[in-house]
Write a structure and sequence with these properties.
CATH topology: Neuraminidase
Number of domains: 1
CATH superfamily: TolB, C-terminal domain
Number of strands: 25
CATH class: Mainly Beta
Shape: globular
Order of helices and strands: HEEEEEEEEEEEEEEEEEEEEEEEEEHH
Strand order of the largest sheet: 1-22-21-20-19
Largest sheet: 5 strands, antiparallel
Amino acid sequence: MRRVTIILACLTSSVIPAHVYTGFQKQYTSIFSEEQVIFTTNHNITKLLVPADGISYIHHSDIPSIFFTVHDKNLEGEHCIYVLEGFAAYEILEGGRDSTSDYGPDKAIYFGAKDGVYVYDAASLSAKKFGPFRDDIIQIQKANGSDLIFYLTTQHKIYKLEKHGMVRTKITSIICALEFVLDTSNNIYFIACEDKLPRIVTPKGNLISFFSSVTSDFSDIKLLRPAFIMDNCVPFFADGVLYIIYSNGTSEKKDFLIKERPSAFSIDAMLYVVAAINGKIYEFNLLEMLLKSMFKVPSRWPVNLTNIIMSVIDSKESI
């Protein structure tokens, strides 16, 4: 497990910030370049999703489908979900706010919107209503390996949807949440409204308090949905510093600080990562970069990608 978290620190240091600082690197180095931009909009991009399997849903190309949400006050619900296929963006759901998919064999993409849950129809490039409930949803997460879907409403309540969207249950152990993510074992990690610190709810509904490994007052925390190889933990940024929080409530501070943070990112697929800054989507094909590193092709990246990827492959045995 320790090796997995080290890998994530390396991956996020290679992908997320526009300027990087670590204890070993005192100079700021921008890793975002125009050649990595694959899409640009005049609106802020609030959510990104590259499904964990990294497939294209309509073109069957080497570039995976990328689902993203833009914020536009002129739209109904002020948000709209698009899918980027190749270099073309298609509108999927006006009023949609977030996208999610399973880590496993279930290929369905689900959307949380102002009037409930929708499911992606790739054949028509549209979304169809999923279930009868019309909650005002701001965040949605598909459980791993089951039909459960969790979502957060504008009332800061988290609900569980099951039986093909026909049964809805409130998670009563979560009184008020600002945001949440699931790990690959379906533990719920959320930011509590009362003190803006992480909490954990197990799949059985037990609440676990957060026990920080450092004594700090955080002013800004952002949870990340973990890469598919991580187990019983999720990464989060607290005031620009990277931490790993584990399902037992403990955390580990990483020697990594970011000065600038994207408005959205997706590390689900691990080897193909995307981040959004100022309306631009940047792609980072880590497999391609690994090959360049192996064959000594010049690269502007400040990390040894060969060691990162080989460590990721080796860490699977320890999960």
